Amino acid sequence: MCLFFCEKDQKRGVYLTLEEFFKENPEVAVAFSGGVDSACLLYAAKAAKARVKAYYVKSEFQPEFELQDARRMAQELEVELCILEVSVLSEEKVRKNPKDRCYDCKRLMFNAIAEAAKRDGFSVLLDGTNASDQAEDRPGMRALQEFSVLSPLRQCGLKKEEIRRLSKEWGLFTWDKPAYACLATRISTGEEITSEKLRATQEAESYLFSLGFRDFRVRRYGNGARLQIIKEQLPLLMTCRQEILERLKTWYETVLLDLEVRG
Prior knowledge:
Blueprint (H helix, E strand, L loop, with lengths): L17 H7 L2 E5 L4 H12 L3 E8 L5 H14 L3 E5 L6 H5 L4 H19 L5 E2 L13 H7 L5 H4 L4 H10 L25 H16 L6 E5 L2 E5 L5 H6 L1 H8 L6 E3 L6
Helix pairs in contact: 2-3, 2-8, 5-6
């Protein structure tokens, strides 16, 4: 296995290599989303010959393609995958969608993972947080601390760009997968989250994916949709403009283009 050197000095809680981390933690449970970071982490654990099991939480906030990607990656790496169903909308505070909603959601998810991992004989729980992630911008990191979740990619100083490079070298299909925040992030803070709103988001974004769009968002704006796309895909948007309007109005009253973001 390759060595991945960290720019930080070695100290308590910081490892110079992933190899070193898994030598000290040879049996691990991985909170697995099917995304770039957790796939990289799962591969590293497998390559280090650690005893590892992946845990995917299926909730109202995850689109179907994420589960499909998680299954595919676990199969390719020959890692056992446990799928846990958690209804995050059963928690009133999550439904009310306050600024720290992510904390309550992560608490529910990691509680389910921690319990399942414990039953399977794992005492060390990992997630794919990397060195590019800013703790102050992520209320969910508080939940990670409460459940003593370790983040080897972050501890080894690995940032997103390096993780993508390594993933490509390792032949992981996730290496260029666009970042994808959960469906709840499409609904403005303070607006109640419902299964109907989440379903509209998933259907609209699935449709745009089918047209060839990548790295975009369909955000809810009142009863309308606000599209956020990268500037390189504006020509595609204009080519499919009428078709997109007709299809998205199945779920939204209006369809707007946000010109200030994702450019």
